[in-house]
Amino acid sequence: MAKNYTLNVALNMSATTSTGYSQSQSGSFSMNITGVDQIATGRLDCATDGDGTIMAAPGYGKAIYIRNLDNANVLEVYGGASSANDLLGVLKAGEFMFTILRDTDTVTARGLGGTVTAEYFAVEIDAAA
Amino acid sequence: MATQSLSVTASGSFSLIDENGVTVFSFSPSFTTAATVTDSNHMHTGEMLTNGTAATVINSLQNNKDLVYTFVKNVDTDYPVAVQADGDDIADLKPGECFFAPVHIDGAGDASNDLGLVATTAAQKVQYLICDGEDTGINTDD
What we know:
heterodimer; A: mainly beta; Jelly Rolls; 4-stranded antiparallel sheet; 10 strands; 60% strand; B: mainly beta; 11 strands; 0% helix
C-alpha cells in the first residue's frame, strides 16, 4: 500500500458564559507522514465489560480521532488497556476528541452505562512527522 | 446565589491524503454542549511558557476536575510539549500542532490536580482554552 501520507487537521473550540463572555481557540496544520504501516478507521461497538481496540500498538506514535456516536452513554478512551487507568478522554454522546501521541501504547475504548459505538481513525506516525 | 452557566462548541476537520492524491478518509465532527450551571465554575484561556524542562502546570484549581473541555496548541518553533492529565500523557505536540479533548484530570482519590505541561528539551510556549463540563459520573481516573 501507499506509504506516504498527509494528514490535514483543523480544530476549533469556543466557550461561552450566560453573561455573553466568550473565548475561543483554533489551530490548523498538516502532518507529512512517511513509512506508514497502520491506518485504522471505521466504527466499533465498545462494550462496558471489555476494551474495544481502536489501534494496535504502533511502532512510534499515532494521531487519533474518536467520536461517540451514542445518544446517551459515555465513552472512555484509554492509552493502553483500561486497567492502566490512563484516560485520554471522556466523551459524552456526540462528542469527539483528537490527539497526537508519540508513544507505542495501544488505544482502547469502553462504554460507560451501555455499549457505545465509536467512530474513529488512528494513523501511525513516524519520528519525522 | 450566583451561578455560572457554561457552554462549549467544538468542531474539527480531518483528512488523510495518500502520495497519489487519493483521499483515504475525511471527517468533520462538531458538537455544542447545553448551557449548564451544574459543575460549571471556570473557563480560561492564555498563552504560557513552560518552566524550562521542569514540570509546568496550567492552574486548574477552580476547574471541575472530573470534566474539562481542553484545547492546547504548541505555538513555539522548536520542540515538542507533552500535555498530561494525572501524570499521564494525553497529547504530545510538536510546534504548530494542537489537540482537543474532553478530559478527566482528577486522580485516584479525587486529588486536586492540574493539567501538566512537559517540554522535554527546552522551554516552549503553548496556548490553551479550558472550560468546565458537567460530571460524567467517573469519580477517579477509571
